[in-house]
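Notebook p. 47: complex prediction with 6-diazenyl-5-OXO-L-norleucine.
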Amino acid sequence: MPELALLEEVVEKVRPLLGQGKVADYIPALASVDAGKIGIAVTTVDGETLGAGDYLEPFSIQSISKVFSLTLALTLYEEAEIWSRVGKEPSGHSFNSLVQVELERGKPRNPFINAGALVIADLLQSRLGAPKHRMLELVRQLSQNDKVSFDKQVADSEYQHSARNAAIAYLMKSFGNFQGDVDTVLRTYFHYCALKMNCADLSKAMLYLANRGKSIIGTELISQVQTRQLNALLATSGLYDGAGEFAYRVGMPGKSGVGGGIIAVIPGELSICVWSPELDGNGNSLAGTAMLEHLSQRLGRSIF
Ligand code: DON
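Predicted complex, C-alpha cells below:
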C-alpha cells in the first residue's frame, strides 16, 4: 500500500495545474461543477482503501461506466456475441464521432467510444428485465456502498441533449447493429453515465481489474483471462484519442469520463481513481492524468 503521505504529495504536486483545463459544459449539471476539486484513492488487492484530497466527494462517473457495462455484458453473453457487434481497436477519433460508424458500416471500433457503449447498452437492454436497476445493484455491491445512485438531474439533462448519441444509435440501426428501441436504450445509457460515485467507491469497485477478476467482496466477477483482455482494451482505447499519450506518461490500463474521473490499475497490486473536473483536449482529466503520472513514477510502476 502506498503511504497516505504519498497520495497527499501527488495531490499537492498537481494542484498548480488547476485552471489549465476546461470543465465539460455540454450540459448545465456538469458545467456547474467546482473546477477546483481534486482527489485520489487507491485500493490494494488486500481490500484496503486510502485517499487524499476530495476523494470522498461524489462526482458524475460518465464514461467510466462503460467499464461496468462491458463487464456486465461479459457475464451475460458469449464473447462472440459481443465482438461480432463491437471491435477492439483504438478509434483515432473523438469519443462521440459519427464518422467511423458510417465508414465501417455500423460496427463501432471499440466498446468505450459512445457508439460502442451504445451497442453494449443495447445488448444489456435486450437481455435484462431491468438494466438500470441491475447496474445499480452491481456498482453498489462492487463499491460496498449502498448510497451509490443515479444523478437524475444529469440523466435528464443528457437526455435533453441527446441528438448526437441518438444519431449514432440510429445510424447503427440503419446498418442492423442496434436491436432495441433507441429512446429506451439511450435512457439506460444516460443513467449509466449519470452514476454518482466518489474516488473511494470507484477504486474499490474497479479492484477486480487489478485482482484477476475477483471483486472486493471476493466473488469472481469475470475470469482471469477476461480481466487480462479487458485491461488490454483499456490500455489501448480507455483514454480515447489520448490513449497513446496516457500509455506513454502513465503506463497503466485506464478509463476516463468527462466528469473528470479516471480509473487506472496496476495489475496484481492496486486499483486507483483520480478526480479533477477540468479536461484536456481529448476529454480526459488534465490534473487526473498528471496525478497518475506522478504516482506511477513515484511507485516505479508501469505495465510496459
Ligand atoms: O454520452 C456522452 O457523450 C457522455 N455522457 C459521456 C462521455 C464521456 O464521458 C466520454 N469520456 N471522456
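Notes: Residues 4-63+195-299 form a domain with the Beta-lactamase fold (CATH 3.40.710.10). The mean pLDDT is 97.
Next step: compare against the earlier run before touching the bench.
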